[in-house]
Write a structure and sequence with these properties.
Blueprint: E1 2-5, H1 9-23, E2 33-38, E3 41-46, E4 62-66, H2 67-73, H3 78-82, E5 123-127, E6 130-131, E7 152-158, H4 163-166, E8 173-179, E9 185-193, E10 202-213, E11 218-229, E12 232-233, H5 238-241, E13 245-248, E14 262-265, E15 268-270, E16 278-282, E17 287-292, E18 299-301, E19 308-309, E20 312-314, E21 326-328, E22 331-345, E23 348-365, E24 379-381, E25 398-401, E26 407-426, E27 429-449, H6 451-458, E28 460-462, E29 468-470, H7 495-501, E30 502-515
Parallel strand pairs: 5-8
Antiparallel strand pairs: 1-27, 2-3, 4-7, 5-6, 7-8, 9-10, 10-11, 11-22, 12-21, 13-14, 15-20, 16-17, 16-25, 17-18, 19-20, 22-23, 23-26, 24-25, 26-27, 27-30, 28-29
């Protein structure tokens, strides 16, 4: 419960006169003064002055985003809106969950605020000055997509001194969403769009309804929205498909030669394997390397990048880790929000809010890689393996280095929140008290490779009818062809194949919150 003094006009006048007498011409009063007249009493709020106050009453730097600005941005959820502002660009969203600052695939589908880059848990998110249930279990960070953007009147961002008032979870600041009050009528929003590259299709539709009843003393407002956004892989953009990296300079001869030790490579690739598969053929003294061209599918010798520093080169046929990552996560969101307010009298108001939201999202990251150069074991392709390229017939021992199945998470979150509050006046003091119950259930399905079963499925021969079968003779083993992506993850959708090759780790988290 928050209590703060409510002075009448006579009290304020006396305080101002006293302050003017003490500080003379240095007195500054902000011209932004709000006065209201109710039942003969006038209330005045001074938003800036040099009258001595406690730390809880002192002004702090505040950025305000009003509804007209929100409309002009075209943002479809609160996360999209705030990530456009410099102070919050380091947040986690659909386009940033997989960057170098946050590689947790479990964050896919979340829209988190992160002031100053110190972590989403250090940015306090409020709705009408009240705390909101967190977006995922195990964290206090709020999922901004759970706040209906159509009902936001303004956003207040405080970036200094907030922890002295709100506590440790406001170390970097506070983002306070002020929602529309007294909405009346029906508003429908619908949009469809895609990127300038013709991908990333996004569909949004929402309806907001409000009505004043009981002579205007009671307002009921409800909002329902749906959003669907398409996935964009890293390889869809030139800037994101490249992997900038510093590589040892081959021209460097020593510490005092004036030649840089490293050079910048814009297309860093690991020379020991490829996503399509690299073939090692023993030549008596070492290995000749071959690949299947990713563009035309032809079998040809491996082309190395330049320059190279160990196993990492700039360009060439090697494996680029960006090839399997997600640039923008796919997501589906459903959000329902209903609120009501009843003015009992001029000194007492009752508020209630019910919210339900469900989000489904997914993200991919680097796969398990197989090679003997410190990156994992190498795979042997026997001469009778039907997946072995015919160009290698008679070549003797052949080994395969391949990226393997990629890592991927499918996340489902359900949020439920109930809030009941009272606000008004007790004598000369304003109060705002509320009780809130929130619940978040998150189901995360993570796929991992079962190494032993994977190797068993790769060691393939043929039966009497020429059909691929596992050499082990295990009837449960499903032959798997990793070469040139011929066996995609979609081919592993069957229950049998999943049990052989992939392990689905299902994690169910539940979180309850109670803010009295």
């Amino acid at each position: 419960m928050n209590l703060r003094p409510n002075f009448n006009l006579n009290q304020i006048s006396k305080s101002v006169k006293t302050a003017i007498a003490c500080v003379g011409a240095t007195m500054i009063i902000s011209p932004s003064i709000y006065a209201a007249e109710e039942d003969g009493d006038e209330r005045i709020v001074i938003t800036g002055s040099r009258i001595e106050r406690t730390s809880a009453q002192m002004t702090t730097p505040t950025t305000i985003i009003d509804s007209s600005t929100i409309m002009m941005t075209g943002a479809k959820n609160a996360g999209d809106l705030l990530h456009r502002f410099p102070a919050l660009l380091d947040g986690v969203g659909g386009a940033t969950h997989n960057d170098y600052t946050d590689r947790d695939l479990g964050n896919a589908g979340l829209e988190l605020s992160n002031l100053r880059g110190l972590g989403a848990a250090r940015t306090l998110v409020l709705v009408n000055g009240r705390r909101h249930v967190a977006g995922a279990a195990g964290t206090s960070a709020v999922d901004l997509s759970m706040i209906p953007i159509a009902m936001i009147a303004r956003v207040e961002i405080i970036t200094g001194g907030a922890s002295a008032i709100y506590g440790a979870d406001a170390v970097t600041g506070v983002v306070n969403f002020i929602m529309v009050e007294g909405f009346e009528g029906t508003q429908v929003d619908a949009s469809y769009g895609q990127t300038a590259e013709g991908d990333g299709d996004r569909k949004d539709v929402g309806i907001t309804w409000g009505r004043n009843i009981n002579g205007g003393k009671t307002n009921i407002t409800a909002h329902l929205s749906f959003s669907d956004e398409e996935e964009i892989p890293m390889t869809a953009r030139d800037y994101s498909s490249l992997y900038p990296v510093f590589i040892g300079n081959p021209a460097n001869t020593g510490p005092d030669d004036g030649i840089p030790n490293t050079v910048l490579g814009l297309n860093g690739r690991f020379e020991v394997l490829t996503e399509e598969g690299m073939f090692y053929v023993f030549n008596g003294a070492g290995y000749d390397r071959f690949v299947i061209d990713r563009n035309d599918g032809t079998f040809r010798p491996f082309q190395s990048g330049n320059p190279c520093g160990g196993i990492l080169c700039d360009g060439g046929d090697g494996f680029n880790t960006q090839e399997t990552n997600t640039l923008n996560s796919p997501s589906e969101r459903v959000l329902f929000n209903a609120s009501a307010r009843h003015e009992v009298n001029v000194d007492l108001g009752i508020t209630g809010n019910v919210k339900y939201a469900k989000t489904e999202s997914a993200a991919s990251n680097q796969p398990v890689i197989f090679h003997d150069g410190g990156l994992g074991p190498i795979l042997t392709l026997q001469p009778d393996n039907p997946y072995r390229p015919t160009e290698l017939d008679g070549a003797g021992p052949v080994f395969l280095a391949v990226a393997g199945p990629l890592a991927r998470n499918n996340n489902i979150r359900e949020t439920t929140q109930l809030t009941f509050g009272l606000d008004g006046l007790i004598g000369e003091y304003e109060f705002d008290a509320y009780i809130q119950h929130g619940k978040v259930e998150s189901e995360i399905n993570a796929r991992d490779v079962l190494i032993a079963n994977y190797f068993e499925a790769l060691d393939v021969t043929t039966d009497g009818g020429g059909n691929p079968v596992c050499r082990s003779g295990n009837a449960a083993c499903v032959p798997y062809n990793p070469i040139n992506n011929q066996a995609s993850l979609a081919a592993l959708a069957g229950d049998d194949a999943r049990q052989i090759l992939l392990s689905n780790k299902e994690q169910l988290n539940k979180m309850l919150s109670l803010f009295p």
